[in-house]
Design a protein that fits this description.
The complex is a heterodimer of chains A (about 120) and B (about 110). Chain A has about 120 residues and is mainly beta. Chain A has strands at about 5, 10-15, 20, 25, 30-40, 45-50, 55-60, 65-70, 75-80, 85-95, 105, 110-115. Chain B is about 0% helix and about 60% strand. Chain B has strands at about 5, 10-15, 20-25, 35-40, 45-50, 55-60, 65-70, 75-80, 85-95, 100, 105-110. The chains are: A mainly beta (about 120), B mainly beta (about 110). The interface of A and B includes residues 32 and 105 of A.
């Protein structure tokens, strides 16, 4: 069965410093991987995805993630954090070629960027 | 791209009252649709998904139900709400391998 783990409940970083939000996954075959961001009392917004191709994926708002098959990881990164990046971040996985199956989400990581 | 409309945005209901939350989709036809619940601002629990009119799959046994009366309409219902039904309910639609989400409904059962 597919699963996603976000090992950190919270990540704290100072504005201007690089940030990393960790995600590992378990799925048979080559996965579809996603990052979403949620601001308070809002729906989730898409940041980026890995389907196939380059392992380094660039997304919205300067975020990027690297697909590492050997470590089954898909960590979210940004070179220089902004206070406005503070939000709840979700990693998600989907089995390949299964458009009718649901995304499985991690429990979320709260990112707090201090000025 | 698709747009998902959810209403109401917030709802306060007494225990034992009925519930109806509506989700409609624009910009696509025959979408796969999903209902998730988010408790305490954290993880997302899949409740129901639908691949077509009248086709509902339930992931979690509970006092909620879902219906899909039209291609782009997905309704979440309950006959009698429990305190534990409180949470943030999100509707989602397949798009390019991932999802587009609605803005959510905050349900508080009192």
């Amino acid at each position: 069965a597919q699963s996603v783990a976000q090992p950190e409940d919270q990540v704290n970083v100072a504005e201007g410093n690089p940030l990393t939000v960790k995600c590992t996954y378990s799925v048979s075959g080559n996965p579809y991987l996603f990052w979403y961001v949620q601001y308070p009392n809002r729906g989730l917004q898409f940041l980026l995805k890995y389907i196939t191709g380059d392992n380094l994926v660039k997304g919205s708002y300067g975020f990027e993630a690297e697909f590492n098959k050997s470590q089954t990881s898909f960590h979210l990164k940004k070179p220089s954090a902004l206070v406005s990046d503070s939000a709840l971040y979700f990693c998600a996985v989907r089995e390949p070629n299964q458009a009718g199956t649901a995304l499985i989400f991690g429990k979320g990581t709260t990112l707090s960027v201090s000025s | 791209s698709q747009t998902i409309h959810q209403w109401p945005a917030t709802l306060v209901q007494p225990v034992g009252s009925p519930l109806s939350l509506e989700c409609t989709v624009e910009g696509t036809s025959n979408p796969n649709l999903y209902w998730y619940r988010q408790a305490a601002g954290r993880g997302l629990q899949l409740l129901f998904y639908s691949v077509g009119i009248g086709q509902i799959s339930s992931e979690v046994p509970q006092n909620l139900s879902a219906s899909r009366p039209q291609d782009r309409q997905f309704i979440l219902s309950s006959k009698k709400l429990l305190l534990s039904d409180s949470g943030f309910y999100l509707c989602a639609c397949d798009e390019e391998g991932g999802y587009t989400f609605g803005s959510g409904t905050r349900l508080t059962v009192v």
